[in-house]
Write a structure and sequence with these properties.
It contains 15 helices and 17 strands. The protein is elongated and about 120 Å long. The longest helix is centred in the first third of the chain and has 66 residues. Strand 1 and strand 2 form a beta hairpin. By secondary structure, it is α+β, with helices and mostly antiparallel strands. About 35% of the residues are buried. The model has no long low-confidence stretch (mean pLDDT about 85). The strands form three sheets. It has a six-stranded antiparallel β-sheet with strand order 3-2-1-6-5-4, sandwiched between helices. It has a six-stranded mixed β-sheet with strand order 13-14-12-15-16-17, sandwiched between helices. About 50% of the residues lie in helices and about 20% in strands.
């Protein structure tokens, strides 16, 4: 055998051995790269899908809770036979309907079981009462179950047989002044539209679903798997998430991730991940808990679809060619074109995982790794923009909700909550500075008679006019507000006894004079109190109310000022 043959044979043997070894190494390396990349993408995708769901629901939940706190609805729920309260409540319900995304609402009263509903087409205008809830009827069991559990807020996917609709329902309990449950209000989101917008995003290789606290499927692109009316079903009869998996170990793993997140409590942002098999394909499952709604978000990534191993096959050709040229050159090429970009990409992924979008400079060789780095960089920029935009929207909506919670919707003045906050601030300021401030408490004389004779609409107009005259009669830096019903409160700061009497008298006179021009004479009884640094809120309100009561006893349409020595001064009439 010639030397040439031996050398060629040895070279061929080395190439074959090296190629086989390299192929085995390539398989292990590519799987590790894909799995590590998949874990990072799974966490990002889970957080992104969770943010999209919460963004769609938080406004609706906030409006439903605001509706449950409506005094008109609460008063009616306690006396549903009162037609005047009913009319006022229905107007309130209809005003909320136009604000909900689905332009629909429901109100269920505990006292008589009456269920009221109207939809986006205003189909039931004037006939919002739809049916009576029956505790012995399985389709109505959700209502009585939620009341029995006393959960103030609940989400459920349920078909309403009576109405012929299937929606994602937002249920909020309505409580009376004694914290007793008097009913339930809420809205619904069209299930098909919601699934299309949030769940079925149309991207191959990504499956998103949402399950409740017990693992029952609530949102999934295949509605056959959704567990409708989960709240009334006993355990063991629900469509739980483990139905999506064939292997017992996969079912145990996904349920174990849910239990682990439950133990962590309300920690926002924690994501558990693991590999499972779905329809014979290996998937990476990412799970996160959403404490705001009590659900879990599950994302299944088909790594073979998102990043097929075939994307990396050209690297094998590069490796073999480099091997024929020189093993040293091969090492340098691999180091510069594969390992280094992967390391920098991994560091970038870790930064994004930790919440930082200040990425290091990514090496982008002209191959799949480089394109992957470029895609990741663009994805990170897009995610950073979306995150900031979402944070801005959340902050803006929070500010809007805080403002709405402190403003009376009828008059535009501060409501009782807003007045309470201003009063607390003035009390603290008075204690710090050792000064006082004034409070005026007034109500409209014989306002019930106005409502009875002219109707509630005219009464509302009078309330709005009084609010305008009240703002015209005080200083720009004073704080007028509607305490409730026909009662108004004004905080005067700075203030002394003379200023208190002058402003109180001016308000009374202004209402009397201006109302005469409208054709409906209106007068107000005014009580005032000059607060000191030692007074607390109970003392201040009691003194102002005592002065108002005295003004009424003296014939109404007058001003009485209470003093700290329990005396009363009639300032004008």
């Amino acid at each position: 055998m010639s030397l040439k043959t031996r050398i060629l044979g040895l070279a061929a043997g080395l190439i074959i051995v090296t190629s086989v070894t390299s192929w085995l190494a390539y398989r292990e390396l590519s799987e590790d790269i894909i799995e590590r990349w998949g874990q990072q993408v799974a966490e990002i995708q889970v957080r992104y899908d969770s943010a999209r769901l919460l963004q769609s629901l938080e406004r609706e939940i906030g409006l439903a809770k605001q509706m449950a706190q409506s005094s008109a609805l609460i008063n009616w729920a306690q006396a549903p036979e009162d037609q005047a309260l009913k009319s006022d409540a229905i107007r309130q319900m209809e005003s909320f309907r136009s604000n909900f995304r689905d332009n629909s609402y429901f109100v269920a009263l505990r006292k008589n079981g009456h269920y009221y509903y109207n939809n986006a087409a205003n189909e039931f205008a004037g006939d919002q009462f739809r049916y009576v809830l029956d505790p012995d009827k399985p389709d109505d069991a959700w209502f009585f179950q939620l009341i029995e559990e006393g959960r103030d807020f609940h989400l459920n996917v349920n078909p309403d047989v009576e109405l012929g609709v299937t929606k994602l329902w937002i249920d909020v309990l309505m409580r009376g002044p004694d914290n007793q449950i008097v009913g339930m209000v809420g809205t619904g989101l069209n299930l098909d539209d919601f699934l299309q917008d949030i769940v079925d995003i149309g991207q191959d290789g990504i499956t998103t679903l949402f399950v409740d606290y017990n693992g029952a499927i609530q949102l999934y692109r295949d509605q056959n798997f959704i567990d409708f009316a989960s709240i009334i079903k006993p355990e063991g009869q629900k469509n739980t998430v483990d139905l999506l998996f064939d292997e017992p170990e996969d079912k145990q793993q996904i349920l174990g991730m849910l239990q682990l997140l439950k133990k962590k409590g309300d920690q926002v942002g924690d994501v558990e991940s693991g590999f499972v098999t779905v329809d014979g394909n290996k998937h990476l499952a990412g799970v996160a808990f959403l404490p705001a709604i009590g659900w879990f978000e599950i994302t299944l990534l088909d790594l073979n679809t998102l990043l097929p191993k075939s994307y990396l096959w050209p690297l094998v050709g590069v490796f073999l060619v480099s091997l024929l040229v020189a093993l040293v050159l091969f090492h340098l090429i691999i180091q510069s074109r594969i390992l280094k970009p992967i390391v920098t990409l991994e560091h970038a992924v870790e930064k994004v995982r930790d919440g930082s979008f200040e990425l290091p400079r990514l090496d982008k060789p002209d191959n799949e790794i480089g394109r992957l780095a470029d895609h990741f960089e663009k994805m990170s920029h897009g995610l950073r923009h979306s995150t900031r935009e979402l944070e801005n929207k959340v902050a803006q909506r929070t500010d809007d909700l805080n403002r709405l919670a402190r403003i009376d919707p009828l008059t535009g003045l501060k409501n009782r909550r807003g007045l309470d906050e201003v009063l607390d601030e003035e009390i603290q300021r008075a204690k710090r500075q050792g000064t006082g401030f004034g409070i005026i408490w007034l109500d409209i004389d014989h306002f019930k008679t106005v409502n009875d004779q002219l109707g509630h609409q005219a009464g509302d107009q009078i309330l709005c006019r009084v609010a305008l005259w009240l703002k015209a009669g005080v200083r720009p830096y004073d704080h007028p507000g509607r305490w409730g019903g026909d009662e108004f409160v004004v905080l005067l700061s700075p203030c002394d006894q003379q200023t208190l009497e002058q402003i109180a008298g001016r308000i009374r006179q202004l209402v009397e004079q201006e109302s005469g021009k409208t054709g409906h004479n209106v007068t107000v009884s005014v009580g005032g109190y000059l607060c000191s640094a030692e007074d607390n809120s109970n003392t201040i309100l009691r003194q102002a109310d005592r002065a108002l009561y005295q003004a009424k006893n003296q014939g109404r349409n007058r001003v009485c000022i209470a003093t700290a020595q329990n005396g009363l001064v009639t300032a004008g009439s």
